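ok here's aspartyl aminopeptidase:
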Amino acid sequence: MALSRLHLLLNKPPPLPFLAPSSFVSPLSSSFRVSSRRPRPTPRFSFARRLLCSKSDPPTQSDPRWDEPAPSIVGDLLDYLNESWTQFHATAEAKRQLIEAGFHLLNENDEWDLRPGGRYFFTRNMSCLVAFVVGERYSIGSGFHVIAAHTDSPCLKLKPRSASSKSGFLMVNVQTYGGGLWHTWFDRDLSVAGRVILKDGHGSFSHKLVKVRRPLLRVPTLAIHLDRTVNTEGFKPNLETQLLPLIATKIEDAEMKSEDKKIAPSSSKSAHHSLLLQVLCEELSCDVSDIMGMELNVCDTQPSCLGGGNNEFIFSGRLDNLASSYCALRALIDTCRLPGDLANEQAIRMVALFDNEEVGSNSMQGAGAPTMFQAMRRIVDCLAQERFREGSFERALRSSFLVSADMAHGLHPNFPDKYEEHHRPALQKGVVIKHNANQRYATSSLTAFLFKEVANVHNLPVQEFVVRNDMGCGSTIGPILASGVGIRTVDCGIPQLSMHSVREICGKEDIDIAYKHFMAFFQSFSDIDKKLSVDF
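and the structure:
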């Protein structure tokens, strides 16, 4: 059922996509068109091919004319999801795509040399990324047009000392990260991915990303014969004692391999099963003695794919919030591909992808850190050079606008009573603007109007969401960033089902609608914003 990359069937690279207001067509078309981009290197993992559908429409050549629709990015999103098992892999893949698109990699420790028309990005902790392009007509005091999302998702993470054993099994100690639906992690084919700190032969150290593609771990459920009330009283596992994955049956000391015996009980390596270390070494082509540290997530091995009778859904882990991250990333890349795309732009277009949103954002690589605002100040100072004027940075912030993009709650057909009667976002009907009077979302009437006006100009659908008064409301990075220095913010998201499950669902059409909406934001917000006067 898996299809190899469709663009490899093409004999020559197609023209690059171009987006203009008249290029937007009805986003609810039933056809699915795969983006025919320039061929990329052969995928490193044979298993990570797109799982599209049993039969698909033939690939179409995109024509960058004003009267042609933008190509679908759904196939490319599936590739991105299958690459991005962890926040580190998501950032590394975004980095690869930005470099391929001609963006210049910056280092936060170096001096920056920026120019109007330039495209730049930097990473922090390889789990946070900020990319930006400078309009060719940039002037001091011009604002930033930003789309912000996050790279992390609820998951299980290995504890610093993960090795344990129970009843003849080798178990892996894990801790819960974020507010996951942990019962969905039972009876899944699981593995590990993340980063490992390695030493080399010259006394220095490096970090390498690792992904064990084969099923390695399993959290088995208890048979119903031994838990007769589970269907009536609910499945309520103890997260400390009953959520431990097993990796193997216990290996007796007499059967241990000779290389395992070289690990002293007091060594840091003894904190993890020697079998797990062997698997990591095979993936990294290193010795156990080279491993100095690790940060590993437990991941579901089932690939992301299309599903449903009409192949209209995306079934995947980590849709929250890699779907938003990828739509934002592609929108930024595709709105500055062609000569002239930035010729009339006065603002700075930016995408910021943060880590640790699922646990409050209070980290060096989270939205609670001043990463984005420090970058904004450096950009303004660098572009101003000797022409620095009073309040340049502050004026730029007052002219700026932030789109906080995080997945939204789509209407669940089995639980309609959980939704406010007049605010029930549907799948396949477009981006959802989130409202909350208690500022759990940063949306205001003004920011909602401006973001909806972008959609109206380009004939794109928009939905709205308000949580019921008798239920609690989640939050996003929007209020954190909005209150940091006072930037106008709208909270929005792609509607989905099964949020925070190991396997989530969203609509295929909504991905392309979000992509078009974000592209329209970058291309037309400067003109729309000029038409609204408030504090004058």
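+1. The CA atoms of residues 135 and 345 lie 4 Å apart.
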